[in-house]
Structures
1.
Amino acid sequence: MLAGLLLAGSALTPVASAAPGPLYKNPHASTSARVNDLLKRMSLDDKIGQMTQAERGAVTPDQAAALKLGSLLSGGGSVPASNTPTGWADMVDSYQKAAVSTPLGIPTIYGVDAVHGHNNVYGATIFPHNIGLGAANNPRLVEKIGRATALEVAGTGPQWDFSPCLCVARDDRWGRTYESFGESPRDAIANASAITGLQGRRLGEKPGSVLATAKHYVGDGGTTNGVDQGDTEVSERELRQIHLPPFREAIDRGVGSVMISFSSFQGVRMHAQKYLITDVLKKELRFRGLVISDYNAIDQIDGKEGFTPEEVRLSVNAGIDMFMVPWDAPQFIAYLKAEVEAGRVSRERIDDANRRILAEKFELGLFEHPYTDRSLQKTFGSKEHRELARQAVRESQVLLKNDGVLPLAKTNNKIFVAGKNANDIGNQAGGWTLTWQGQSGPVIPGTTILDGIKSGAGKGTTVTYDRAGDGIDGSYQVAVAVVGETPYAEGQGDRPNGFGLDAEDLATIAKLKSSGVPVVVVTVSGRPLDIAAQLPRFDGLVAAWLPGSEGAGVADVLYGDYNPTGKLTFSWPVSAAQEPVNVGDGKKALYPYGYGLRYRR
Ligand code: GLC
């Protein structure tokens, strides 16, 4: 049938074609018209299925379709047998094929935590974690990283990225400090540019656009003593001043989803906070996208293992739209259906959730393009992306001390490199790398910091490496000790008892110092470290944070190929005992928020 044409001015303007088939399948119809039409055709089972997200390891494609699941996810480290772009695309497309083969053909949406590149997949470009990107103070760079990440994600299949974390980490003992851009809301506000990189100016506007997630709403970084999933015992005024503004910015940027925090606010789990989710996020801030729970998070509402019908009712009625119930989808579906049929969850609430979920799927273009655009795989781990990552590493380095020992001479130098983090790409990548917790060792392709020091050495320069510093003597002109933390994620990174250098690092630095050679210390860590006691013995100090796969970017700064511009977005405490210490709190930090040196040319 010819598309209807209207005479408008001198031109004929095509209007929504009266294409055959249901309105919701017409890409020229408005999103709201498509949502309304589809909603009318959906049963209660269809609608409850759309609100349910399961882990890929828990359901086959056919089981997912039979449950009418709206979404699948890969939890950290949940990868297909072939952890390659093709292996991922085949896996994601197999769920999609089953979904679009159902009577209504509603596509599923697949979510991953690509929080510093597409970090689940071997060979992806691994960018610095947010703590370093915050120090780079370059929102445009972060937007480009978002775009690069989206291309690498979309080319492997997933259409949803549970990123960026817009947490404002207020206590460095928190295991997720490195997922924060900084201790001030302005850091997360500025770097919410990641959303525009991931989604585009408008969701679905171009190939590779993926649904972004502002997380974790709200106050995850403000818990007492930095306890992960703890209680944010601040006033509503402080919550609105410190933790809410990044979500306002994310909404202004059109973020399509918001993830609720595990933490509590004033003793009540966020997943049961109707006032903050429905009244504040959805009504006051006018968030139109979908709200998703965190992983099994509704289980925690009553403080007991597993979830109950009451916890399902409380969290749905609080305003959460989609539920990450990785291994318990059938149970969730059964409980919610019973709650609706008993009249304890309204059909209007179910419809509100579905409108939000379906609108994102329509905006993403999933109904028109349900399968992976494999042409994007040419960007995966590309040279261009790795160069972008290396630039981000350069800009994230913060020079904290320099007694004239930096920059290192590239020629006619004799450099000794030591430390457990000098030649360990797993340690420099940190958590959320291939697995949830990350791991030490040569686990991903890229360059270590030592690789960079070696490749940057010029004529007449030798570079010697020994992890413990064995072999150092007075014939060396300078020593570089790359020390710090080994990978962790979430609560496993909580450090309630302090965060100083470990015994190995202290021994390595002492050995280097005993030779009389000047020592540059480079910290690879997910937080500022408690180093004040050792600082007088450091001739130079650089915070490298968690640089990711392109460690050579650290060497670019050590050699002065890039004059450091990084500035602290976390007050560096005089000791762990000083925590929390934040800009404007009147406490005197060892190095204040905004501190960072440059080389005098
Ligand atoms: C995790 C994290 C969240 C992540 C989700 C899915 O527990 O809290 O940031 O997006 O589960 O992996």
Note: The mean pLDDT is 96.
2.
Amino acid sequence: MNQMTINHYLTEIKQQSSSIDSELCSLIEMISNSCKIISYLVSRGKISGILDNVNSKNFHGEVQKKLDVMANQILLETNEQLECLAGIASEEMENVYLIPNHYSKGKYLLLFDPLDGSSNINTNSSIGTIFSILSIPHSSSKMLGNAMLTTEKDFLQSGDNQVAAGYAIYGPQSQFVFTVGTGIVIFTLDREVDSWIMTHNEIIIPEDTQEFSINTSNMRHWDDKISSYIRNCIAGETGPFRKNYNMRWIASMVADVHRILMRGGIFLYPWDKRNPNEPGKLRLMYEANPISFIIEQAGENQ
Ligand code: F6P
């Protein structure tokens, strides 16, 4: 069997599309390398002592584990020296990291959630890394000599502007899933050769589904429309949808979304009355935007 690596795939896709350049390809490959290291750490679990809490909370008030901090460091350190990047933003960091002027800089901005679903680490459930890539908007770029000056504002772009996005899932198999806007590809980590090997492409989410994914323990806090939709699903054949549904909730978005990519369904984490001034629990730029790009690319009309 011919085994397609991420490098082979990106080389092929670059020849087919003028919007995909060598810098973007190197960046995606480097992220996949970082995820390989994180996958190894996750698989060693307690043996490597990385499951303990550290005595700190992240910017969003969540308790951090050693592994959260390490995953963030790995992604930061492996990618910061790439000449294609201008800045990095992470869910685990309060401020964006702008590539220092003494490094060569490029036009891309990398955003990531180093370890999504990390409250599940101790239960040995699937968790993941989510990433999104933007480029510096032309309108805002100023030059300092030959280098572009980047500011925090450059990150504040609509999800439509993403040039690539994806996630790694660390489960029974580790998989690296991404899109550069030309459909979804999935690579599975072959530990024997220490390489991501393509195992799925042209993924389309099955239209006909029986599964919904939402934390129903929050039902009392939801908006009436969401409650009514979920009540209709639960009513099954006797309700207005005239169909029996099943519910799945892993509490790790990467794992729930990956299942939907494979066999269909719907994932919801709606706004609720507990924090009425916040739009929702999921973070737009680290979680919702990249996952939305993936799901959009796995739609029938791509
Ligand atoms: O936003 C982080 C996250 O861990 C998601 O991965 C997951 O879907 C959700 O939160 C779980 O939230 P809860 O514990 O409220 O069900």
Note: The CA atoms of residues 166 and 298 lie 12 Å apart.
